[in-house]
Amino acid sequence: MHTMALTKHARQLLVIIAEAALEKSLVRDVKRLGAHGYTVYDVRGEGAMGVREGEWEADRTIEMKVICEAQVADQIAEHVLNTYAPNYAVTMFFAAVQVLRPEKF
């Protein structure tokens, strides 16, 4: 069996876990700051701010994943940290990822 070597391109994955009330603002911000796209999920969990079960609207939490250039991820994270983290439950982390179609990210 012949396998073709895939060309992979380095990108940054930025994961933002935040109160669902921020979703529209986060979508607007990540696009304005240079991300080409994003994915959002409804999630549940527990952390420093307590248990968030998502059983009522104000208790809902989202997870937003953004794959982009590293400098764009840094700009988004800095903006979210300065704008939302002081007043909302927000968690962020980065991971190095590789993509096959770099023009998408």
Question: What are the main properties of this structure?
Answer:
about 100 residues, single chain, about 25% helix, four-stranded antiparallel sheet, 6 strands, 2 helices
Explain the overall architecture.
With 105 residues, the chain is α+β, with helices and mostly antiparallel strands. 23% of the residues lie in helices and 38% in strands. It contains 2 helices and 6 strands; from the N terminus they run E-H-E-E-E-E-H-E. The strands form 2 sheets. It has a 4-stranded antiparallel β-sheet with strand order 2-5-1-6, with helices on one face. Strands 3-4 form a two-stranded antiparallel ribbon. Strand 3 and strand 4 form a beta hairpin. It is globular, with a radius of gyration of 16 Å. The termini are far apart. The model has no long low-confidence stretch (mean pLDDT 92). InterPro entries: N-reg_PII, N-reg_PII-like_a/b, N-reg_PII/ATP_PRibTrfase_C. This is Transcriptional regulator. It comes from Caldimonas aquatica. Pfam families: P-II.
Quick gist of this model?
This is Transcriptional regulator. By secondary structure, the protein is α+β, with helices and mostly antiparallel strands. It has helices spanning 23-32, 70-83, and strands at 9-19, 39-43, 45-47, 50-52, 61-68, 90-99.
Topology (SSEs and partners):
Layout: E1 9-19, H1 23-32, E2 39-43, E3 45-47, E4 50-52, E5 61-68, H2 70-83, E6 90-99
Antiparallel strand pairs: 1-5, 1-6, 2-5, 3-4
